[in-house]
Amino acid sequence: xxxxxxxxxxxxxxxxxxxxxxxxxxxxxxxxxxxxxxxxxxxxxxxxxxxxxxxxxxxxxxxxxxxxxxxxxxxxxxxxxxxxxxxxxxxxxxxxxxxxxxxxxxxxxxxxxxxxxxxxxxxxxxxxxxxxxxxxxxxxxxxxxxxxxxxxxxxxxxxxxxxxxxxxxxxxxxxxxxxxxxxxxxxxxxxxxxxxxxxxxxxxxxxxxxxxxxxxxxxxxxxxxxxxxxxxxxxxxxxxxxxxxxxxxxxxxxxxxxxxxxxxxxxxxxxxxxxxxxxxxxxxxxxxxxxxxxxxxxxx
Length: 300
Description:
- There is one protein chain.
- α7 packs across α8 (155-171) and α8 packs parallel to α10.
- The protein has helices spanning 14-28, 39-57, 69-75, 79-82, 89-92, 100-121, 123-145, 155-171, 178-201, 207-224, 230-233, 237-258, 266-299.
- It has 13 helices and no strands.
- By secondary structure, it is mainly α.
- The protein starts with 13 loop residues before the first helix and ends with a helix.
- The protein is elongated and about 105 Å long.
């Protein structure tokens, strides 16, 4: 005869308990006190504002690219232009997007993964990892594509966020319950694998930036990983930040030295194209004027 009370609720499954404990530990980690202070939200806002400026002020296009000149002028990265003293393009290209769909997909992926990584790493280390991933993607894109591609978009940095999650799991696996890290691992691998395969199948997608961002994120996620316990992680933050900054500097130095150089200047090429286009536009009117002058001279 059983003594169980039929009105007593059944015990929670182990997986649910583990996820609830993880969520509580995650909530106790230091983070932004207000959504406006979240690094992820600030990055999304910066990308949206950049898109509005490019499309609304410079006429780059809303749903699709209407004019490449704003991208070529100051937003996108191209090995020939970037290595010609315009290294800031590696940063500006991280906040430029080719149309609304391009922006929406990247921001959705960043929103889904960024808040979790921001909690796991802390705001400073997360921002460092995002920056390193974007730069890593941009540097590999230049080495891979040379001057054939004008690269733009946050996808390299977003891939880095997923890579950072993998790196964190590799180093702090014991801090994450199996019921938590297995779904995270599966979702990260699925995201990376699907998008890389899609990028190889469909032309026009800068898979080099994706691979570079993913690799950089994996490295920095491992280097910057901290214990889940807030007390244990506090004394480690400074050391992780020092290591991360040193790794970022090394990444930039190696990437800059390895970047291909070209024997022409993009801005000179663009000036020549504008001159030719201007002459081509005016040529019919000039020919018509010359023909009229010849007829008038012959009639005299």
